[in-house]
Structure prediction request, 385 residues.
Amino acid sequence: MRNNHRRNLALLVAFCSCYSLLAPVQSQHIETVPASPSFHALYERNVDLLCRSDKPFDHCQVQLPGPSSIAYDVDSLPGGVKRIGDGSRGECGVRLSTITSERFGKFVCKLTISGEQHEATIELRQLVAPRTTDLKISKYTTLVDGGIRANQMLKARCTSRMGLPASNLTWFLDGKPIDESLLKPVQITTEMQDQKNLETIQQEVNMYVTPEQNGLVLECVVNHPAFRTEQRSSIPLNIKFAPEEIPHIHIDELPASGSATVNITIHANPQPITRWTVNGRLIKEGESIDIYQAYIPRPTSSKGDYRVLLKNNDCTKERATLYTLEATNVLGTQTYIIKAVRVDDAGTEVIRNDDYNYHDDGNGSTFWLISVWTFFCSVMATRLL
Prediction:
C-alpha cells in the first residue's frame, strides 16, 4: 500500500512538472531603454526614454524628469516632448528635444495592464567629464640614478577623478594588455560637488620589474562617454641594473695581419665605464695603448644594450687569444672573459694543436696542456662572473 502511494505521488509530481513547462508564464516585467541611470550632456538633443512591457498595456502615463511631479498622458505632452513607441508591442516613451538643466532627474512611466498599474523609472544624470588622468608610482619604490631599481615589486596607481559616470580604466605594458592577475580591484568613491555626486575611480597594478623590462612603457588608458578620444597616461620604465653576465664568450681568432676589432655587446643601465686587459696591458675606454685602442661604449638600443669595441691596429705584432673586459656602473661591476678561437662554419670551436707552442712528448702532452688551459680559463671565468 505504501509503495502504491509513493508511485501515485511520483506520477503527480511528474504531471505537475510537465504542466509547468507547458503553461504560459504570466510576467509583467517592464524594461527601460536606456537602462537606469542614463547619462547625458547638457543641451544634448533628441534623447529617447522608453518603457517596454512583455504584454500590451491599456493606458500609459509619464512623469517627465525635472522638478515637476505632474503625470502626463502620452497623448497630451508639453512642448519639446514627443511620444515614441508602439503600444501594440507594449512600448511607451518620450523623446526630449533638448536636455536642459531642469531635465535631469527621474523619468517615470506608469502602465495600466489588465486593470493593474505598473511603474518603471529611468534616472537622467548629467554627464561630467573627469579631470586629467593621474598615473603615479608608489613612494615606496626604490629609485636609483633617476630610475627604478631592478628586481623589486613596482606599484603604480591610475586615478580618474570627479566624473559622471565613473571612467573605464585599461592597462597596457608596451602596447599589450596587462595580465589581469597583476591588477588590484577597482575602487570607486563618490563626492558631492555642485549638487552632483561625482565619482572617482582608481586602480593599482603590482608588477615585479626586471632588467628585461627596461625601456618598456606602462600605460593607463581612460575611456569616458564625455571624451571624444581616450585619455592616455604613461610611464617609461627606466629600470636600473648592474652589467649582466655573459658566460663563455668566444670570438673568432684574429687574422695574421692587418687590423681587427673585438666587438662585445653588454646589457646594463646606466651606461657602464669599461676597461680592457690584454697580455698585461690595461686599456681604459677612450685610450690607446701600444697597438690597442679602446672605444667608449655606444648604446645600440633603448633597453640598455651597449657595444664595446677594442681594436688591434697591427695583428702582425700580436694576436691575443684571451681578453678581459671589466664594466662598472653605480650598481656593480661585471668581468667578462673573451677567448679568441678558431671556429668552423657552424660556429663550433675547432680543437687544434698546430698553433700552440706546447711540447708534445708523444704521450699526448700537448692535448693535456690545452685541456688544462681550457679548464683554467673556465674556472677563472666562472669565479670572475
